[in-house]
Design a protein that fits this description.
Blueprint: H1 14-23, E1 31-34, E2 39-44, E3 47-52, H2 59-64, H3 69-77, H4 89-97, H5 99-111, H6 117-128
C-alpha cells in the first residue's frame, strides 16, 4: 500500500490497522471525491473534513500527523488501498487449535502480575470470540 508521502511500513502498525478498519465504516453517501486532484470532502459525525492523501482536517490527523480513517477512505476510493488480507482457512484452523495455549500464556502473565485481571479477561474474550 503506497500512497501519499507515507512510509509503507506505517500501515501495518496496530493503530493504523484500526484506522483502516474504521475507514471501511464510512458510507459512500458521506464521501465526495475529486479524483483528478486526489482530494475528498468527507462528512463525519463531528464535522466535514477536507482530505488529501497526505493530510486531513480532522482532530486525529492534526494531533498524530499519521494517516487517519479519512485518508485511508480516500486512498480506497482512489484504488490505492491494497486489498486487505482474506481469511485463510488453514491459518484460521491453526489459530483456533492454539487458542488454549495462548490463554495459558496470558493466564501466566496475569498470575505473575504482568497484566491486570481486566486485561486478561478482555484478551480471553477476544481469543474465544468468533
Amino acid at each position: 500500500m503506497n500512497f501519499g508521502n507515507w512510509e509503507e511500513s506505517i500501515h501495518t502498525d496496530y493503530e493504523q490497522i484500526k484506522r483502516i478498519a474504521f475507514s471501511q465504516r464510512i458510507t459512500s453517501d458521506n464521501v465526495i471525491v475529486n479524483t483528478d486532484k486526489q482530494k475528498a470532502t468527507i462528512t463525519g459525525r463531528d464535522g466535514t473534513y477536507n482530505v488529501t492523501l497526505d493530510s486531513c482536517t480532522c482532530y486525529d490527523f492534526e494531533s498524530r500527523h499519521l494517516p487517519c480513517k479519512h485518508i485511508y477512505r480516500l486512498a480506497s476510493e482512489l484504488g490505492m488501498l491494497d486489498e486487505l488480507p482474506k481469511i485463510n482457512r488453514k491459518a484460521a484452523k491453526s489459530f483456533k487449535d492454539n487458542v488454549q495455549n495462548d490463554i495459558d500464556h496470558y493466564k501466566e502473565l496475569y498470575l505473575n502480575g504482568a497484566i491486570s485481571i481486566e486485561k486478561f479477561n478482555k484478551i480471553v474474550n477476544a481469543l474465544l470470540s468468533k
